[in-house]
Each structure stands twice: as C-alpha cells, then as structure tokens.
Design brief:
Largest sheet: 4 strands, antiparallel
Radius of gyration: 17 Å
Mean pLDDT: 77
Shape: globular
Order of helices and strands: HEEHEEEEEEEE
Number of helices: 2
Number of strands: 10
C-alpha cells in the first residue's frame, strides 16, 4: 500500500480553524485520507467544577414544547439552524440549578455561548456563529446529541 503524502499545511489550517471556532477537535477526510486534529481545553473556574447532572430539573418542559413545533419543516434544513459539531450530551445551563445560557426570544451575538456539549468528560461551549434571535430550542437539557443534529434555530 502506497503512503499518502502528509499535508502539514492542511493540519495547520485545521488547527487554526479549531482556534477560530472554539472546537476541541475537527476531522477532515478526502479520497481515503483522514486527518483528525484535537486539543485539550482548560476551562475557567465557573465551568471546570461541573459534574454531569444526575437528572434535569423541572425546567425541561419549557424546552420540550418548541421541539414539537417544527412538524411542517425540517429544522436541519433551516438556514438559521445551529448544528451540533460533535456527539455528546447537551446542557442548556452552565451548571445544575443555574439559568439557561439562552431562552426562546433572546437576541444573541456572534461568539456568545448558547449551550455546552459534554463529550468524553469535557464540556465544550457551543457559540453562536451569527447574531440573531433564538426562535427555537430543539434539544432538552441533558439530551444526547449526534454530530450535525440541529440544536437551535437563530433567525
């Protein structure tokens, strides 16, 4: 089997993209060659001591109602869909008992933290890629999510 030449420029570009998007890992595949770039993140004291919540508090029904609303249109195809960049568990608040990062109707700015996704015991902040108004929250607190799954709609 012939070795594929190593593209260090691509690795540097992917590492730069990690910094720009605040992701912890990114994977690229093209014509049978796969490159995965990952980094370890250190969080501030406000997020670091988080333990995985045992059960979602009663606040979950507020997020559940909007999840049933988009029956007519597929939220994954919505131009304002915020999709999960990884597989993990979504948390809408910084820690149990604290208010959610955002609620339906909130106006968000680019780079604002909208939720956390816990993957491999690391809490990854998911930030707004664009400014706008949160019109739907499609996940519940503590819900497992898949890569590419729509999490919120921002219009």
């Amino acid at each position: 089997m012939a070795k594929t030449p190593f593209d260090s420029g691509l690795v540097r570009s992917l590492a730069s993209l990690l910094d720009e998007t605040n992701l912890t890992e990114i994977e690229y595949e093209n014509e049978g060659t796969r490159i995965r770039v990952a980094r370890q993140i250190t969080y501030s004291a406000a997020v670091a001591p988080m333990a995985a919540p045992m059960a979602a508090p009663v606040a979950a029904p507020a997020a559940a109602a909007p999840a049933a609303a988009p029956a007519a249109a597929d939220p994954a195809n919505h131009p304002g869909a915020l999709k999960s960049p990884m597989v993990g568990v979504a948390y809408l608040a910084p820690e149990p008992g604290k208010p959610n990062f955002v609620a339906i109707g909130d106006t968000v700015a680019v780079g604002q933290t909208l939720l956390l996704i816990e993957a491999m015991k690391t809490y990854n902040p998911i930030r707004a890629a664009k400014a706008g108004k949160v019109t739907q929250i499609l996940v519940e607190d503590g819900q497992p999510v898949e890569y590419g799954e729509p999490l919120m709609i921002i219009e």
